[in-house]
Amino acid sequence: MYGPGDVRVEDVPDARIEAPTDAVVRVVRACVCGSDLHPYHSMGASAEGSTMGHEFIGVVEEVGSDVATIARGDFVIAPFAYFDNTCEFCRAGLTTSCVHGGFFSTAQAEAVRVPLADGTLVTAPVGEDSALLPSLLTLSDVLITGHHAAVRGQVRAGSSVTVIGDGAVGLLAVLSAKRLGAEQIVLMGRHQARTDLGREFGATDVVAERGEKGIAKVLELTGGRGTSAVLECVGHLPAYEQALAVVRAGGVISRVGVPQYDQGPVGFDLFGRNLTLTGGPGAQRSYIEELLPEVLDGRIEPGRVFDRTVGLDETPEGYRLMDERTALKVLVRP
Amino acid sequence: MYGPGDVRVEDVPDARIEAPTDAVVRVVRACVCGSDLHPYHSMGASAEGSTMGHEFIGVVEEVGSDVATIARGDFVIAPFAYFDNTCEFCRAGLTTSCVHGGFFSTAQAEAVRVPLADGTLVTAPVGEDSALLPSLLTLSDVLITGHHAAVRGQVRAGSSVTVIGDGAVGLLAVLSAKRLGAEQIVLMGRHQARTDLGREFGATDVVAERGEKGIAKVLELTGGRGTSAVLECVGHLPAYEQALAVVRAGGVISRVGVPQYDQGPVGFDLFGRNLTLTGGPGAQRSYIEELLPEVLDGRIEPGRVFDRTVGLDETPEGYRLMDERTALKVLVRP
Q1: Between chains, do B96 and A278 touch, taking CB under 8 Å as contact?
Q2: Which residues are paired to A277 by β-bridges?
Q3: Is residue A3 a part of any domain in this protein?
Q4: Does residue A12 lie in a domain region?
Q5: Which residues contact B297 (CB under 8 A, 6 or more apart)?
Q6: Contacts of residue A265 in chain B, CB cutoff 8 Å?
Q7: Residues A274 and A288 both lie in one domain
Q8: How many whole angstroms from its chain centre is CA A77?
């Protein structure tokens, strides 16, 4: 990506082992993320450009001499961050704060160098032709991110939840809230094909209105009180402000949309009603380990969020389709 | 209070029963709160003035016809908010969000009308001459507020905690964190008499430096990582910014200082490291019920925060002493 709207497919040096803890993974499926659209809209033009992509599943081609648990030929899921899985933060489950870790940014490609392969990669007992590939790919980001939103939102049996955003993460936050036992799930989104899928994932109510009208509608649906959890899956300031308006006193706003703002209401708006604001990047390895069995046995079908597939050469088209909301989420097939 | 620095003692109509759920309580002890200093600094000048005070203990003089659990002659503790203790928020423990509740603002007085007396007042088996009066009075606000900071900060056995602010709430947040099992408690404050009391309450480290130097010192004391909980007991924006700088990845900032700002850093500063921001008014009745036995048997001595006593007529002097930091916390004896 060289600037707003400017995505190019180019030859770069092959991914290769650089440290003994590395693996090289041939990409079987990658995709375009809603968060890739933020730089697609607003990055500064750059002569060097930035490599893109942080979601992929694939087959291990080569491992460094210190890699012990992953072998050539393994089918693997890579979360959007890499980590050693041994530091104090990893042991506490917070792999995105690994002291040796970082985030992937070269996954829209034929192959990826994976640092700290033992810590990062999770193997799956499937072949490259598995029908489960789309659902497995969601374990790389959008499903674990939606799950993180629900976990951090303290969603449990009987919870009332508002999900803001009908992108792939929002819809999988609905699925995650449902899976954790939420009783009422209000999905705020205005693209009917998406909110219909949200209903199939477990949304009990859909609010298509935005702004004041949308807020009034959620309050009407919740006895005037709002919901105990609000999962903010967009990242823009109005979505956060909407969350403040529909969360119940004592409730939790859990954000997984990457904030595109630095400053915002953080004073008495939160304090007066004892609200909790939480969330962040959710590439926790434990989430993949928890959710993978349910993907494998078909209990959940998060891969339904993919509604278009493009070849690697067509990746710029994939961005365009997602940017104009023609596609919900675009799978990239190298 | 008629404006910044302008506190007057005046005759007003006597407190009296206005609703059948009211009680009238003769004040035995009241006090001046750190939060009273916010309007003392910055309220707009007003011809009518505002009555002040939200912390008191006293003896019930009269009860309305619907009051069932409180009787004339009872010695009672009033939290700084009143509530019915039956609504959905009260049942969830969040009495400050009671749908029929509100906050006291007439406690620096001879007597107070207490709405919803059955829900609000907690009786204590002591006389008006008890040596425990100062500690009992902290159950009205500063102790339960410090406790709320620690509870919301998820402080538990082994936690590392930074407490920002050496006012009465900060010192009792230290006591509360210690009581809940915190292992390391770093108190940030620069008034040595206060931080010395903080050490007696359980602080393991004191950082007198402010700003960048103070932050560097806390990081040095915590292996460069910060603490898992930061209890923000001030309410000014720099204190919140300091909290952001000394909280550990994945940790909690728990605020009980009433925010004197609306906007602030709320984007990636919180999100990137999966921080949680929480807190608010903590007048939970359950806190009084939990802490009262330990005050009565002397296991905790929160009343040590009072270092001056004035008569009701001298209340303006009490504000002055606290404002100029000559007094830590001023007891008012009608």
Answers
A1: no
A2: A253, B277
A3: no
A4: no
A5: none
A6: 262-263, 266
A7: no
A8: 14
Same domain, residue pair A258 and A154: yes
> SS3 of B279, please?
strand
- Report the residue of chain A nearest B274, measured CA to CA: A280
**Identity at A310, one-letter amino acid code:** V
Are residue A268 and residue A288 in the same domain, yes or no? no
Question: Which amino acid, one-letter code, is at B288?
Answer: I
Structural domain ending residue among the three candidates B250, B279, B308: B279
Any B CB within 8 A of A272 CB: yes
Taking a C-beta distance cutoff of 8 angstroms, is the pair A106, A113 a contact? yes
User: How close B70 comes to chain A (CA, Å)?
Assistant: 28
Task: State how many domains chain A has.
Answer: 2
Distance of alpha carbon B65 from alpha carbon B315, whole angstroms: 34
Looking at the fold, whether B132 and B222 belong to one and the same domain comes out as no
- Same-domain check for residues A68 and A171: no
ipTM over 0.90: yes
**Residue B5 covered by a domain:** no
Neighbours of A220 (CB within 10 A): 11
- Measured in degrees and rounded to the nearest 5, phi and psi for residue A196 equal -65, -45
Question: How many residues are present in chain B?
Answer: 334
CA-to-CA distance for A34 and A54, rounded, in angstroms? 11
Helix/strand/coil for A34: helix
Q: How far is A251 from chain B (nearest CA, A)?
A: 10
Which structure tokens are listed for A187?
Answer: 């999905």
Residues A137 and A148 in one domain: no
What residue in B sits closest to A255 (Cα-Cα)?
B271
Residues B232 and B302 in one domain: no
User: Does residue B107 belong to the interface with chain A, where contact is any CB pair within 8 Å?
Assistant: no
Q: Tell the residue number behind the tokens 């916010």, with chain if given.
A: B38
Among candidates B88, B255, B267 on the partner chain, residue whose Cβ is nearest the Cβ of A271: B255
Domain check: are A202 and A265 in the same one? yes
Instruction: Look up the CATH number of the domain holding residue A182.
Output: 3.40.50.720
The domain in which residue B159 lies consists of: 145-279
CATH value at residue A314: 3.90.180.10
What angle do the packed helices A211-221 and A237-246 form, to 10 degrees?
A: 30
B11 belongs to a structural domain: no
Cβ-based contacts of A266 with chain B (< 8 Å): 240, 259, 261-266, 277
Sign of CA dihedral B9, B12, B15, B19: negative
Chain A residues within 8 A of B169 when measuring between CB atoms: none
Q: Which DSSP string corresponds to B199-224?
A: HHHT-SEEE---HHHHHHHHHHHTTT
Report the gap between the CA of B226 and the closest CA in chain A (Å): 13
pLDDT by position in tens, chain A (length 334): 999 999 999 999 999 999 999 999 999 999 999 999 999 999 998 899 999 999 999 999 999 999 999 999 999 999 999 999 999 999 999 999 999 999 999 999 999 999 999 999 999 999 999 999 999 999 999 999 999 999 999 999 999 999 999 999 999 999 999 999 999 999 999 999 999 999 999 999 999 999 999 999 999 999 999 999 999 999 999 999 999 999 999 999 999 999 999 999 999 999 999 999 999 999 999 999 999 999 999 999 999 999 999 999 999 999 999 999 999 999 999 9
Nearest-angstrom CA–CA distance, B287 and B108 = 23
Domain termination residue (choose one: A279, A301, A325): A279
Residues of chain B neighbouring A169 (CB-CB closer than 8 A)? none
Q: Do A265 and B263 touch (CB under 8 A)?
A: yes
CA-nearest residue to B250 within chain A is A94
Q: Using an 8 Å CB-CB cutoff, list chain B residues near A280.
A: 270-275
A204 touches chain B (CB under 8 A): no
